[in-house]
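Readers of this paper often ask what the protein records in our data store actually look like. Such a record has a labelled line for the sequence and another for the backbone structure tokens. Nothing more is needed to write down the fold, since each code stands for a local backbone conformation. The remainder of this section carries one protein's record, kept here as part of the documentation.
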Amino acid sequence: MHQFLIKNLPDAFTYYRIVTDGDGNPADYVFLEVNAAFEEMTGLYHHSFYRKHRQEKGSGFNERSAQAN
């Protein structure tokens, strides 16, 4: 039931995993799930970055695109 609600939210939703460095500090993140509203608002589509690190080349996501939307 909750996945249906999240998938159909009118607001952008993302679920991601924080990746830490050797000292346990946040260093990156990996998108695990996004909804259609996120894709529409950012122009970034699930298949282009699913389970890729944000810093990974070709992930399609950068800080500028996040701030612009």
User: Anything to note?
Assistant: Residues 2-63 form one domain. The chain has one domain: 2-63. Helices lie at 2-7, 36-42, 46-49, 63-68. Residues 9 and 37 are 7 Å apart (CA to CA).
